[in-house]
């Protein structure tokens, strides 16, 4: 299997195993699906963290309003009493006014926190340094884990306008958000290798060769972004080692320049007559004086 190190720009994303016979069009779709799936897991984790602190999302017409404004406009959160967390809740006001403040009890909060921790570990970028490939199945398992934890805490489901529920049902609206800039539409994605665009009408083996044990770096880019930057000839680790070696050498030279000590003249190797004494067998001759 060919091992692909997938990057977005200069940032590592994940490893992916595939065969040389796969078409570039199919490969690009599989990679961007995993890439977008990881972003979805991260978004859901972020929202669940807020859910564990401040409860379910307020209706759209109540978002960001103060208590006085809500009372003046006679607005009511009809979903507050329908979507109650298991084990009850305690009030914890949302400072940004997005959620209703009905925080789950600590035990249920721990269920959500554990699911977040496990899901993040399943799709972590650190897997690239551990040489562990990522698959669509793993990304889906991470989402299922989060969905299961939310269902345990909220068996009556979340309100239909809650972004977590919308993410699970794939009806999320990311327009106007930073997240929308990160997501890459499958129809507008390009795959690059060694500074060259991988054309969709070719197969992977035509570009990297027939060796199934190859490991290469490929980069995802949007259609209008142009070619991503090339990989540096020297890795960051090698660069650090070279700088460390140069620094040590510089320090050694400084010490030599500052060292004016002439004690070396007392050493045996500095004696110009040492070789002559060795030839005549006079080395290490000792005299004993007796009366």
TrEMBL record:
<protein>
    <submittedName>
        <fullName>Cilia- and flagella-associated protein 298</fullName>
    </submittedName>
</protein>
<dbReference type="Pfam" id="PF11069">
    <property type="entry name" value="CFAP298"/>
</dbReference>
<dbReference type="GO" id="GO:0003352">
    <property type="term" value="P:regulation of cilium movement"/>
</dbReference>
<dbReference type="InterPro" id="IPR021298">
    <property type="entry name" value="CFAP298"/>
</dbReference>
<comment type="similarity">
    <text>Belongs to the CFAP298 family.</text>
</comment>
